[in-house]
Amino acid sequence: MATNNEKGIGQQFDDPGSPIRQDVQQTPVVPDLDESHRKKILWKMDLRIIPMVTTLYLLSFLDRGNIGNARVLGMAEDINLAANEYNIALMVFFFPYALLEVPANILLKKLRPSYPGCAFYLTLWYAPQDLAFRQGMFFSAASAAGAFSGLLAYGIDHMDGTANLAGWRWIFILEGLITCLVGLAAFFWIHDSPKTAKFLDPTEKAWARNRLMRKTASGRLIEETESLQWKYIVQGLTDWQIYLAVFINWATACSIYGMSFFLPQIVRQLGYTGQQANLLTIPVYVTAAILTVLLCWLSDRVKKRSIFVMCLLGGMLFGFIFAISGSASGNVPGLVYAGCFISTACCYPAYVLTISWILPNVAPTYKRAVASAVLIGVGNLGGVFASNFYRSEDAPEYLLGHGMEIMMICIGFIALNVLRFLYTKENKARLHRQEAVANMTEEELADMGDRSPTFRYQL
């Protein structure tokens, strides 16, 4: 039967932030599986889930960031794009992106998750103690896209003149075509949940579902309610923790989009050609991808989240301080490049660890779907802000842009510490509310989700 060290989604980690009392023993649910069998199941899930969502996200980020590569290869001049018009073109993308996130996440749970919504989708497969590494693998595609974008732009620009089209136009044509083909294949390839996964046998399905269950006060593991009720939508839209987390998300998203859209231009202003600027962005994003996977893996091992986010925000802050110092000191190329390098390498793992920290603290399933959409959708309005940080009239120093990045990081740092304080305070308060549990059924406790007296917020 299930061993005592098997944890459901409500149990989180064995630390003071664990959402369930530690004196409760788990109820046996599924046949006992040895360690090798459990690792085999996770490996099977990883092989079927992670490559596809990673590829989709890589292409998604490639398609939204390649405009920065196209700009330094002559796009703005060819279409007579004024400086402010480029910023507006970047900005308008994010408004429908943010507005459609909530209905999209509701629909993917109501219909099938082989609809967009990868961050929430992974919570349907992996328990919290496994989530950050998988989210890191998936989200490393965003930083890898930056590397691929620079490399592909360098190669595709050699097609300049083919079919009487400029090289920068071929960037959009070829990369967009690849996205369409992979998106079509994904509809047939993606599996919706462990419950319906054809690649798992019945025992493996039971084990995978068991890890996602919530543990009640009596120790029984039951699945989170999956019925769509308006109260869950309202709770997801009004949860205080999500809006504090949005400020953290803005801090990281502003850096991600600011560098994605403007790093080639910033590097070109240091005295390089457009092709050289695209090539010089590659090591930045390769480092960010490696750091994302490494730190997410380490976060799962030590079972902490917020401390990693805090340190990464600090790294971002110092990076932009270096960049603004180099610009203000007569545009010292090495210092500016090093500062942008450090900030970009830190912002990607900070973003994914924020998501991995917050989403397991939201329950039940439908509330998490809505909260995930708010966190990511509203958080991505950081792209609106970042689209206007780096203006052509501020070149080559870009003091305003670097300064705005510093401001957003400071706001995120404050929000992170307020959230940690409130989580800790609420966890301690719930230790004294256990008498309320005796008068409630297990189903009622599960229905309360993260508002249950037995739930503890992960730190």
Automatic annotation (TrEMBL):
Q: Where is this region: Disordered?
A: 1-24
How this chain sits in the membrane, per its record, is:
Multi-pass membrane protein
Q: Which InterPro entries match?
A: MFS, MFS_trans_sf
Pfam families, alphabetically? MFS_1
What keywords does the record list, in alphabetical order? Membrane, Transmembrane, Transmembrane helix, Transport
Q: Which Gene3D superfamilies match?
A: MFS general substrate transporter like domains
Looking at the keywords, is Nuclease present? no
Q: Could you tell me where this protein is found in the cell? A: Membrane
Q: Which residues cross the membrane?
A: 47-67, 87-108, 137-156, 168-190, 242-267, 279-298, 307-328, 334-358, 370-390, 402-423
Q: Report the protein name in the record.
A: Major facilitator superfamily (MFS) profile domain-containing protein
* The organism of origin for this protein: Lithohypha guttulata
